[in-house]
Specification:
single chain; mainly beta; Jelly Rolls; 2 domains; 5-stranded antiparallel β-sheet; about 60% strand; globular
C-alpha cells in the first residue's frame, strides 16, 4: 500500500494539481472483484472541473472515483484506447472524493502515479424532465424530449444527460447543424444512473437543439439534463 503525496502545483489562479505516487502490493486491501487497491482522497467543490489520471508501471490500471455521497463511481480502464486510466467530470457536490487506484484484474501489483487536476467552477444549468407515454416518438419508437439552448460567443459547453431507470441517449445539434450523439459516457459506472455526455464543444452563438431520448424503444423515466459552460 506504500504511497507518497508528491506535489501540489498551481498552474493558474483557478487550477491546481495534486499527485500521488504509490505501489500496489499483495498486502493491500482487495475489491469485490479480487483486485488490489490503494485509497486516496481529495476535496472538490460543486460544479468544479475535475480530472483524475492514473498511470502504472508494468501493469494494467483501473481507476475508480467515488463522490462524497458514495454514489456509483466514475470509472475507467483504458482512456481513449491507451493503457492509462482517466476520468473527467464536473463535480455534482462539494466534499471529499475517494479514489481507488487498482489493477484491471486480480493479482496485479506494481508502482503507479495519480494526478488530480482541479479546474474552474463551471456555470451549470439543469433541466429536470421525464420521458413519458404521449411524448413524441422517433421512427423506431423511442420517446424523446426536445430542448433549446442559447449559445454564447466565447467559451465551451458540455451537455450531460443523467437518466434514471432507462438507458438514455443524447443528441445535440449545433447552430451550424452539426450533429453529436452519445449513449454512455466512458468514465461512468453502469450500476447506478446512466450518464451520456457530449463535449466540451466550442460555444457558437445561436440556438443549440438538444434531444433527450433512449437507446431502445418505449423506454421511460426521469432525467437531469445539464448544460455546463466554461471559459
Amino acid at each position: 500500500m506504500k504511497f507518497f503525496l508528491l506535489l501540489f502545483v498551481v498552474f493558474a489562479p483557478s487550477t491546481f494539481a495534486q499527485t500521488y505516487s504509490g505501489s500496489l502490493e499483495e498486502t493491500d486491501p482487495i475489491r469485490e472483484n479480487g483486485v488490489y487497491y490503494d485509497e486516496h482522497s481529495f476535496q472538490a467543490a460543486e460544479n468544479q472541473m475535475v480530472t483524475v489520471r492514473m498511470t502504472g508501471e508494468g501493469f494494467d490500471t483501473y481507476l475508480y472515483v467515488y463522490p462524497p455521497s458514495d454514489q456509483e463511481p466514475y470509472a475507467n480502464d483504458d482512456y481513449e484506447g491507451v493503457s492509462i486510466s482517466q476520468v473527467e467530470f464536473i463535480a455534482r457536490e462539494t466534499g471529499m472524493y475517494r479514489i481507488h487506484a487498482a489493477g484491471y484484474s486480480a493479482g496485479l501489483t506494481g508502482d503507479y502515479e495519480i494526478q488530480i487536476t482541479l479546474g474552474d467552477i463551471a456555470d451549470v444549468e439543469t433541466i429536470k424532465g421525464r420521458l413519458v407515454p404521449g411524448d413524441e416518438q422517433a421512427l423506431k419508437g423511442e420517446f424523446f424530449d426536445e430542448h433549446t439552448v442559447q449559445g454564447l460567443r466565447n467559451g465551451q459547453i458540455t451537455f450531460e444527460l443523467i437518466s434514471y431507470g432507462f438507458d438514455g441517449f443524447l443528441v445535440v445539434r449545433s447552430p451550424s447543424s452539426e450533429m453529436y450523439r452519445n449513449d454512455d459516457a466512458m468514465d461512468m459506472s453502469h450500476n447506478g444512473p446512466m450518464t451520456s455526455r457530449i463535449g466540451p464543444l466550442d460555444q457558437a452563438q445561436g440556438q443549440w437543439t438538444v434531444y433527450v431520448t433512449s437507446l431502445s424503444a418505449n423506454e421511460m423515466g426521469a432525467y437531469d439534463l445539464r448544460m455546463i459552460r466554461t471559459d
